[in-house]
Automatic annotation (TrEMBL):
<dbReference type="InterPro" id="IPR003439">
    <property type="entry name" value="ABC_transporter-like_ATP-bd"/>
</dbReference>
<keyword id="KW-0029">Amino-acid transport</keyword>
<protein>
    <submittedName>
        <fullName>Branched-chain amino acid transport system ATP-binding protein</fullName>
    </submittedName>
</protein>
<keyword id="KW-0067">ATP-binding</keyword>
<keyword id="KW-0547">Nucleotide-binding</keyword>
<dbReference type="InterPro" id="IPR027417">
    <property type="entry name" value="P-loop_NTPase"/>
</dbReference>
<comment type="similarity">
    <text>Belongs to the ABC transporter superfamily.</text>
</comment>
<dbReference type="GO" id="GO:0016887">
    <property type="term" value="F:ATP hydrolysis activity"/>
</dbReference>
<dbReference type="GO" id="GO:0015807">
    <property type="term" value="P:L-amino acid transport"/>
</dbReference>
<dbReference type="InterPro" id="IPR052156">
    <property type="entry name" value="BCAA_Transport_ATP-bd_LivF"/>
</dbReference>
<dbReference type="InterPro" id="IPR003593">
    <property type="entry name" value="AAA+_ATPase"/>
</dbReference>
<dbReference type="GO" id="GO:0015658">
    <property type="term" value="F:branched-chain amino acid transmembrane transporter activity"/>
</dbReference>
<feature type="domain" description="ABC transporter">
    <location>
        <begin position="16"/>
        <end position="247"/>
    </location>
</feature>
<dbReference type="Pfam" id="PF00005">
    <property type="entry name" value="ABC_tran"/>
</dbReference>
<dbReference type="GO" id="GO:0005524">
    <property type="term" value="F:ATP binding"/>
</dbReference>
<keyword id="KW-0813">Transport</keyword>
Length: 249
């Protein structure tokens, strides 16, 4: 791991840890403060919270994407006990961290198979991706702009998976999708953790579908964590009633 030094003094045995993450925009008050997480290998952690709670900013702060906008982030990120120096998207990608940021970041005028071939280094990898997402095989000759939102999300996810990350960060997988598709996509995340050993941190607003698949849950409110831990250790109903309200669940 050439891009990372030194050893994290408080290594927890996790694949991925974040400590004291703060995100600010335009030098204003923090949009995220004191965020932390430990991700054990092959587990799925979900960050829940209402609009504007800070979920997207957290994921973008972790990956360093904010440097391309008006935002900035501070904090300590470690991968397998090694602190990542000056995290940025390229550095994290080289260290095996993939970000599925947005279903719209696919080439709308290019068909599914051409986009996947651009990234797949071997035919076998492409076939494996089709096995994992049979809908993409069915739709392989269709231009991405004509895919459903869910299928586009699958394509965006497949494009990241072909780079073989060991840690996957996923932002708002469910955005604008029907409940059945959200459950299907969440099921895919669960399978990625179980069958491929991926370590996943997903931010989402789909509470029921997320809780159905998660090992660990974090709830954010106004940029801060208000609950965090293994699903069975939290009084999740009480936390969500307080911070999301029953009507938003
Ligand atoms: N590019 C930006 N410039 C300035 N402020 C921003 C920017 N992006 C987000 N914010 C602010 O940061 C806070 C957290 O927003 P963020 O998008 O991270 O929340 P979220 O929980 O992901 O919300 P949603 O579920 O609606 O996407 C909000 O107050 C938002 O207005």
């Amino acid at each position: 791991m050439t891009d990372s030094t030194p050893t994290d003094p408080v290594f927890t045995g996790s694949v991925f840890t974040v400590r004291d993450l703060t995100v600010t925009y335009d030098g204003g008050p923090p949009a995220v403060s004191g965020y932390h997480v430990d991700l054990a290998p092959g587990t799925l952690t979900v960050i829940l919270g209402r609009n504007g709670a800070g979920k997207t900013s957290t994921l973008r702060g972790i990956t360093g994407f904010l440097a391309h906008e008006s935002g900035s982030s501070k904090g300590r990120i470690s991968i397998r006990g090694q602190v990542v120096k000056r995290p940025n998207p390229l550095r994290l990608s080289k260290l095996g961290v993939g970000l599925v940021a947005d279903q719209h970041k696919v080439f709308v005028n290019m068909c599914v198979q051409d986009q996947l071939r651009l990234v797949a280094s071997r035919k076998q990898d492409l076939e494996e991706m089709y096995d994992f997402f049979p809908r993409l095989r069915e739709r392989r000759t269709v231009r991405a702009g004509l895919l459903s939102g869910g299928e586009r999300q699958m394509l965006a996810t497949a494009l990241v998976l072909l780079r073989k990350p060991s840690v996957l960060l996923v932002d708002e997988l469910s955005l604008g999708l029907a409940p059945g598709m959200v459950r299907e996509l969440m099921g895919h995340l669960r399978r990625l953790a179980d069958e491929r050993g991926l370590t996943i941190l997903a931010a989402d607003q789909a509470v029921h579908a997320s809780l159905h698949v998660a090992d660990q849950v974090q709830v954010m409110d106004s940029g801060s964590l208000v609950a965090s831990g293994p699903l069975d250790s939290l009084d999740i109903d009480a936390v969500l009633d307080t911070y999301l309200g029953r009507h938003e669940r």
